[in-house]
C-alpha cells in the first residue's frame, strides 16, 4: 500500500512528480482546518505538508496516529507545535534555504519601488495620468538612489544574508544586528563570469543600527514582543524607511502608521501582517505603504525548490 501525502496548502508539480516516482500518493485537496483531523484519519495520511495557512497543533498531533511527518514548505514553523510533535515521535521538516533568494529579491522590489514612488505612482497614474501628468511628475520627482545608502539588516540568517549580497552588489553599505550571531558572517557569491566575491557583514548593536540606517529590513522569526515599535521608529533617521518581509507581529503596525503620518519615515513596505488574511484598513489605505500579500517565497523557482526539497526529505525518512 502506497504512503499518502496530503499537501494541504499545495506543493509544486516537480515535488509531486518526485514523490509519485518514489511510489507515494499525493493528495492536493485543500481541507478546511476544522475538518483536517477527520480527513487525515479517514484517509490514513502519513505525511502532512503545510505552508502558512494550515496549523498543526497538539490536538491534531494527538488525534492523528497515522501521521509520521509534518512538513513546512518554507522557513518559519510557528504554525506547527514542533517540539511537541517531535516528542511524540513525528519528524518535522522544513525548507529553510529554498526561498531565501526570492524573499530577498522582493525586499529590493519594495526598496526600488519606495525610493522612486512606484507604489503610489501605480495607484495614481491610471486615475489621473492623462489629466495631471505634470503634477504627478513633480510629486514623484524627488527620488533617491540606493547606491551609497546604508541598509540595516535585523536578522542575518539565510534570507538576511541574501539581502546583504544584493545590497553589496548595488553599492550600499551593509550593517546587521542579530541576537544569535556569535561573529560577523561572511557572504560569498559568484558573478556571471565565474568570479567569486566575499564580503563580511559587520555586526552592530540594535540601537546603532536603528539610528544610522537609511533603510531597515527585518528577517527574524515570530516572537512575543515587537522588534520595532514606537520607540524604535522615533529613533530612526528622518526620511528613512522600513521593510518587513519576515513575520507579522514583529513590527508594531499602529506605531508604524503614526510615524508615517507625522512624516518621520519616508515610506514603509509590508509583505506580512499582524492580521492575515485581513490586514487593517489603515494599512491598505495609506499612500506611504508599499504592500504585497505575503508573497516573499511566491516565485516559480522557489516553489520548485521547496517541493523538491520536501520530497527528498520525505523519501529519505520513509523510503
UniProtKB/TrEMBL annotation:
The keyword Amino-acid biosynthesis applies. Keywords: Amino-acid biosynthesis, NAD, Oxidoreductase. The keyword Zinc-finger does not apply. GO terms for biological process: amino acid biosynthetic process. Residues 7-317 form the D-isomer specific 2-hydroxyacid dehydrogenase catalytic domain. CDD domains: PGDH_2. Residues 136-296 form the D-isomer specific 2-hydroxyacid dehydrogenase NAD-binding domain. This is D-3-phosphoglycerate dehydrogenase. It comes from Nonlabens marinus S1-08. The lineage of its organism: Bacteria, Pseudomonadati, Bacteroidota, Flavobacteriia, Flavobacteriales.
